[in-house]
Specification:
The protein is mainly alpha-helical and 326 residues long. 63% of the residues lie in helices and 0% in strands. Pfam families: DUF6427 (PF19992).
Length: 326
C-alpha cells in the first residue's frame, strides 16, 4: 500500500477514492439515527442564514463528508508536492490525510472543522511561500482574511493568527508592515461584521464574540482512555517521524527545515485552540490532520524496511476499523 502511493501514478487517484470510502465503512454500516450539521457560529448566523441543519440524511451526511475529505486530500497532496516537503512527489500525503481523517467517528461526518480544513490547507500553501517571496505583505494580508473567514465558521480558528507571526519570525527579518498586515486583513473582515451589528443595534452581541479568548485552558479532562487506544500506532509513527527528521535535519534544505518547524507549531496551535470552545467536540482535532499528515508522510517516504513500514500502516488501518466498529 505504502509503496504504491509513493509514486505519482494516476491509478492512485482511483485507489485513494476507494480507500476513502473503505475507511468510512463503519458509519455506512451502522449510521446514527440523526446527524445535525451546523457549520456557522451563532454570531455568523445573525447575518447569514443557511438552512442546512436537517437537510441531509445520516447516509448523505457521511457521503458528502467522504467526498470533501477526498477533495481535501488531493489539494493537500498538491501543496506538499509543490513545496517539495518529501523526498519525491507521490500520493503519500493524500493517503495519510485520508487515514488521519478517519481516526474517530466524529471525523466521519460533516462538521465546521471539516469545512475549515479547506482554509487551513490554503493557509499552509501561503505560509510555505513566505520564505520564497521578496515581499510577504500581501501574503500576510490574505492569510489574515482567510483566518477571519474560518473564524466565522468555527471560532477556535482565530488562534491560527499566531501562525502569521511565528512564520515571519522563522522565515524573515523583522518588517513592521508585514507583522501587522495579517492582523489588518483579519480586522478588515470583522469590520464589515461590526458594521452589520451596528446597523442592527446589536453591538453588545458583537463584543460577546471575543469572550471565549478569555477562557482558561482546562486543567482537567474527562477522558475514556479506551476510546483513544487507536492513537497508539499514530504516536509510534509520529515518534519515528521525529527521529527521521532529526537524523536528516542538517542534511535537508533550510527551507524544508523551516517548513517542518512551522508545521509542527501549527499542529500544536490546532490542539491548544480547543480552550476557546467551552462545548468541546472531538471533531475539533480535525484541524490537526493537515500538519500531522505531513509528518506521517515524511516518515513513510523515508522508511527503508518495507516489511516494517507496510506492517505498521496495516496495523493502523485495522486498529482504526476495529475501534470504529467496536
Amino acid at each position: 500500500m505504502i509503496n504504491q502511493f509513493r509514486n505519482l501514478n494516476p491509478i492512485n487517484l482511483l485507489l485513494l477514492f476507494a480507500y476513502t470510502f473503505f475507511m468510512r465503512m463503519a458509519i455506512f454500516a451502522d449510521p446514527p439515527a440523526q446527524l445535525n450539521f451546523e457549520f456557522l457560529e451563532p454570531y455568523t448566523k445573525f447575518f447569514i442564514q443557511i438552512p442546512v441543519q436537517n437537510t441531509f440524511s445520516p447516509i448523505a451526511n457521511a457521503f458528502f463528508a467522504a467526498i470533501i475529505i477526498y477533495v481535501q486530500a488531493i489539494l493537500f497532496n498538491r501543496v506538499v508536492n509543490n513545496h517539495g516537503l518529501l523526498n519525491k512527489p507521490g500520493f503519500l500525503p493524500a493517503l495519510l490525510y485520508v487515514t488521519a481523517a478517519g481516526l474517530f467517528m466524529p471525523f466521519l461526518v460533516l462538521s465546521p472543522t471539516l469545512i475549515c480544513n479547506f482554509l487551513l490547507i490554503w493557509i499552509m500553501d501561503k505560509l510555505l511561500k513566505v520564505g520564497k517571496s521578496p515581499n510577504a505583505l500581501m501574503i500576510m494580508f490574505d492569510i489574515g482574511m482567510i483566518i477571519a473567514l474560518g473564524t466565522l465558521i468555527y471560532f477556535p480558528f482565530i488562534v491560527m493568527l499566531v501562525m502569521i507571526w511565528f512564520t515571519l519570525l522563522l522565515y524573515r527579518s523583522f518588517n513592521g508592515r508585514e507583522w501587522i498586515a495579517g492582523l489588518v486583513g483579519f480586522l478588515t473582515i470583522f469590520f464589515f461584521v461590526w458594521v452589520f451589528y451596528y446597523w442592527n443595534d446589536s453591538l453588545s452581541m458583537f463584543y460577546k464574540i471575543w469572550l471565549p479568548l478569555g477562557n482558561k485552558f482546562p486543567s482537567v479532562f474527562k477522558i475514556n482512555y479506551n476510546d483513544y487506544l487507536v492513537l497508539v500506532p499514530v504516536l509510534v509513527m509520529m515518534v519515528l517521524a521525529m527521529i527521521q527528521l532529526r537524523e536528516n535535519f542538517f542534511r535537508s534544505f533550510i527551507s524544508t527545515r523551516k517548513a517542518f518547524q512551522m508545521l509542527f507549531i501549527m499542529f500544536l496551535v490546532a490542539i491548544v485552540s480547543v480552550y476557546t470552545k467551552p462545548d468541546f467536540r472531538l471533531y475539533h482535532f480535525l484541524l490537526c490532520v493537515p500538519p500531522g499528515s505531513v509528518l506521517l508522510a515524511y516518515y513513510f517516504s523515508n522508511a527503508k524496511k518495507r516489511w516494517f513500514y507496510e506492517s505498521l500502516f496495516l496495523i493502523l488501518v485495522f486498529a482504526i476499523q476495529y475501534f470504529l466498529f467496536v
